[in-house]
Write a structure and sequence with these properties.
It contains 5 helices and 2 strands; from the N terminus they run H-H-H-E-E-H-H. Strands 1-2 form a two-stranded antiparallel ribbon.
């Protein structure tokens, strides 16, 4: 696996582990809130202001909230274990995970992708090979010069010099040269097609990451507004419940709406960080810097 891909996987695993931490915190807060509501229901039921059946219903909600906390803790353990695996650790990550705080990547910051560089080098080599194979099918013309000196005899001159041309053409090679040339051209054409397809795929990956980031920003704004509205609704419902103007089921629904809204905010933030991580990957910001040519 290339360095750029390995770092991308680690970054995504970190974002997932951080989201798992946030979900545990939300679930834990949900348990605390459910227990507070249970204490309130018991107090009002003992005072005769609410039916005692509300105690059983609220107690069941506490058990459900505790079960949700257990699921969130299990998810966090798996997410941290996956992060440790990608980082080459034997034990799960125990450190406190801070907010990834990734930023959007401008298009001007994009670097050459290693895949493109590799295919371009392969294509250049394939085209050179095709040119070399083409020369094997052509006749070779060479100049030949000969000069000699020897003792003079009645039949042989003391010096000799000759100049000629030699034409070589491989006509009886069984078509091997033509086959080599065709294979070299096919390989070059294949690499050229692969290069174009890779460029289009990477361009599409970049466009998708930009669109995902824009969608995540809008989703986060919506989730934050819904969370604020859910908190306000819970406060109103809690006040109405104390005044015996709202049933227990309405209070339960308002509490669950707050938990759900907080979870949506955490997931929207993770989606935005994931989109920014995909932008970094598409822009090849984590690729190895190009090596300077050797003198």
């Amino acid at each position: 696996m290339a360095r750029i891909d390995a770092l991308h996987e680690v970054r995504l695993a970190y974002i997932a582990a951080h989201l798992a931490d946030q979900m545990v915190a939300i679930a834990d807060a949900g348990v605390v809130t459910a227990r507070m509501h249970l204490a309130l229901v018991k107090e009002m039921a003992e005072a005769g202001q609410m039916p005692r059946r509300d105690i059983d219903a609220t107690d069941a909600e506490v058990a459900e909230a505790e079960q949700g906390l257990i699921r969130a803790c299990n998810g966090r353990r798996l997410a941290r274990g996956n992060l440790a695996r990608l980082m080459g650790r034997m034990a799960p990550v125990q450190e406190l995970l801070t907010d990834p705080a990734l930023a959007p990547v401008p298009a001007s910051a994009c670097r050459p992708r290693p895949e493109i560089t590799l295919i371009e080098a392969q294509l250049a080599a394939a085209r050179s090979g095709a040119k070399l194979a083409a020369t094997q099918c052509m006749p070779e013309l060479a100049a030949v010069a000969t000069a000699s000196a020897q003792p003079e005899t009645p039949l042989i001159a003391p010096t000799y010099a000759a100049l000629g041309l030699r034409l070589t053409w491989r006509l009886l090679d069984g078509g091997a040269a033509q086959i080599d040339q065709a294979e070299a051209r096919a390989r070059a054409a294949q690499l050229a097609s692969l290069l174009e397809e890779t460029r289009r795929s990477l361009a599409l990956q970049w466009d998708r990451s930009v669109a995902d980031a824009e969608d995540a920003v809008a989703s986060l704004r919506t989730a934050e507004r819904q969370a604020a509205s859910a908190h306000s609704a819970l406060e109103v419902t809690l006040a109405r419940y104390r005044e015996r103007m709202a049933p227990e089921i309405e209070l339960s629904g308002a509490r669950l709406a707050v938990d759900r809204a907080q979870g949506n905010v955490a997931q929207a933030k993770a989606a935005l960080q994931t989109a920014y991580a995909d932008q970094r990957h598409a822009a090849a910001l984590d690729a190895d810097p190009p090596q300077a040519p050797q003198p």
